[in-house]
Amino acid sequence: MTAVAPVDQLPLIDTLPVEYLFDMHVDLAPAQPITTPVGARMTFITTGGVIDGPRLQGEVLPGGGDWLLVGGDGAGRVDVRATLKTHDGVLIHYEARGIIKVPADGLQRLAAGEVLPFDQTYVRTTPTFETADERYAWLSELVAVGYNVLSPNHIDYRIYRVL
């Protein structure tokens, strides 16, 4: 008799159930490009931002950033850290990892002031949150995904909780 593997009990799905949490609009200082043996690094420092949505409102404080590494395959590996401040004064540590793929002319288009449309890029992140404040502790206990739009010296996030 063959035992049924526990994974066989999981339903097959073709879409993930999610809950929309908030949008995050982040202003960035111009990139600091650094050529390294492991790829091109681009450091973007956060100058501020706004958080707005049904589950979270507030601001992105200056001083965080994205330490992006673009490898030989052309994919950017996201390494974001920032401090969020809620509308009622709670500080939340924010981190995100992810992947950025832009069209071959994407960096030139950004430098020319163009917004790269969502359907022409692949910018996906997996944010995590840390806070001990009981009003927002739920953020520390979820899996989130972010869909992003790139603009010159700016990035927009739409953040969802995976149910």
UniProtKB/TrEMBL annotation:
Gene3D superfamilies attached to this UniProt entry: 2.40.160.20
InterPro entries per the UniProt record, alphabetical: UPF0311 (IPR020915)
Domain of life assignment: Bacteria
Stored HAMAP family: UPF0311 (MF_00775)
UniProt similarity note: Belongs to the UPF0311 family.
Protein name: UPF0311 protein MycrhN_5400
